[in-house]
Amino acid sequence: MENVPSVFDLTLMFLLLMIVYAPPLSSSPGRPARIHPPASTQRRSAESCRSGSSYERERFCPGPTRTFPRRPDAAHRGYLLLNEIEERRQFLAEMAALGQEKQYVDIINTEISQRTWRTELDAVETPEKGAAERKRRTSCCSI
Questions:
Q1: Nearest partner of 74 among 117, 123, 112, judged by Cα
Q2: pTM of whole model > 0.85?
Q3: Cβ neighbourhood burial of 51 (10 Å; 0-12, 13-18, 19+)
Q4: Among residues 34, 71, 97, 116, which one has the fewest Cβ atoms lying within 10 Å of its Cβ?
Q5: 75 pLDDT band (50/70/90 cuts)?
């Protein structure tokens, strides 16, 4: 019984026959893939390249990068500060009506003093900041 091939041998022979006699793979079954040369050349002539603006550099014109919000003037800032203080006073009055004024009195007074202190600092520093801002704006290059 030594002449009878084993199952492994039969499987191996079958796979080798499949590889050797298998048809080539194509993009669509039944049709071979065709490669067509282009009907006309896609190249441009040297003169058509030179005649266009392909070799001209675009001029750089820097534009504004971002806009800065305008700072309110002193009168408007004072008006805003008075409104904030009034809102806090009304809040304290509402809390007093509810019997919870003691919780908020220190917090509200601290906020009011911080706002007024910042406003006073801004009033002192504004002329210096304004001059620095004008200098920064005018130092931009021009064409």
A1: 123
A2: no
A3: exposed
A4: 34
A5: confident
